[in-house]
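Q: What changes when 1-deoxymannojirimycin is included in the input?
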Amino acid sequence: MAQILAVIAIVAVYTVLLILLSSPSEPISVPLGKAQRAESKLRQKRSFEVPVRPSSDPPPMSNDRRLETVVEMAEHAWSSYMRAAAGADELRPLSNTSSNRWGGIGVTPVDSLDTLLLMNLRREFEEAKRLVSKIDMKRSSKPLSVFETIIRHVGGSLSAYALTNHTLFLTFARDTVDGLLHAFDGPLSFPAHSTRFGGTRDDNEYVGNKYMLAEFGSFQMELRFLAHLTGDRKYVALCDKVKDFLLGLSSRGWPSNPKLYDADQPIMPHKGLFPTFVTFEGKFFGAAGYAAMMDSFYEYLLKQWIQFGKKDAWLLTLYEDAVEGMLEYLLRYSENTNNAILGYLGHTFHPTMDHLACFTPGMLILGVMHGAHDYPNRNRPFSTEDVVAAATDIAATCYRFYAESPIGLAGDSAEFNLNGTYTVRYPKYILRPEVVESLFYLYRYTHDERYRDWGWNIAQAINLNARVPAGYTALDDITKSEIVGSDSMESFFIAETLKYLFLLFSDDSVLPLDEWVLTTEAHPLPILH
Ligand code: DMJ
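A: The predicted holo structure follows.
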């Protein structure tokens, strides 16, 4: 009898909580100031009240079974690719055909190498290696995206080299970069958006005579590591162009001079946050935030600092500026429901959250694990605890996008109403990794099983809705229970989504985070102490 009463009491409390959390409230537009941050403990608690599973669910599966499931998912994805698309860029899993939309340069095998290695899928790894050995970049059928080629091809092959020591991979990485060197031969010496492999500067293409933050800020981990392995300083020199530009701006304090911003489209500076675009003349314009076209710029400030032994103080300063900017200008909490909203800044605050922005909890936690905010005399208006609270709260919101969708999978972008409710803006689910990426870092930091449960729920939803006989497919609309696939399996599904799920369920000795740092495409590179 006592047990029944206890169960009834728990259900009643849970129901009241749910009603309280979902009740409508006044719209707000309150910035996260110090006072709000002081309540972070409370918010942290509340953010955990996102339901993990309905009480009628069976007990959680053992962690080993979860790991086995994820490895089986990778086997299914890879064998499907091999059957219908071997050597092509990507698998089209519904039509059981292939796509060469990246120029026919074998993106999936290069991107998959280290995931297959980590999962100990030796036969599959040998298949991928054989395909990589046959790639002829010169035969690419169209201009290559410089950013994507570096994060997938160069990151993937350097990681495979770091894990195996096979020279094939180092040679492949070096040849790939050497065929793209002319992409840096333009205004500001930043990388072009796309170019022909092995071409000249005349082949360089830009989007509207400007550079994007993520594109010029996310090649340094790969190129600096390549320089370290080959001893060739020319790769570092390319990184130094961006470094000099950023240091030139901030040498006299945060760049507040309006002349640095495009007169037609000025978005005035917010400390720590750079507008999305830089003109050929070196002037900034556009929105600021952690979403598409900006995200990995900030990620690489932190990760380079870690990768190269925490010696580059300027990277840490800019990273801490960026965290300060996020906490001050981009993170809002809805009143009453206290849901974290990580938006972006145009001329005003936009409460729009992309799936892409959900990598930020992972980045913040990685910074905390590496002591990025623990330096004496750092004189910042936020503490390590504030950063952990922000990461925890943003992750809870990101997980909501999955938990509250009718099929358990998130859309690509959501628009908040500042009362904590949101509408899905782009309902596509393209097998993206960012949420499970953050769950992995949060689990490594807290060892709170909740994060594994959340990741497991996502893995199950992927298997239930996106798995087809010939692989895994992106979905058109996660707001409908009727599933419509869009016949695409991006290479980052194996490279990132499945890898992060695997790492989430692995113990800490698999890729220890004081020895390895994962690139923006989840390729582990060794930390150089
Ligand atoms: C990945 O290719 C990389 O993580 C990139 O930086 C942005 N996101 C995609 C996958 O969503």
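Observations recorded in class: Residues 296, 356, 432-433, 492, 520-521 surround 1-deoxymannojirimycin (CB under 6 Å).
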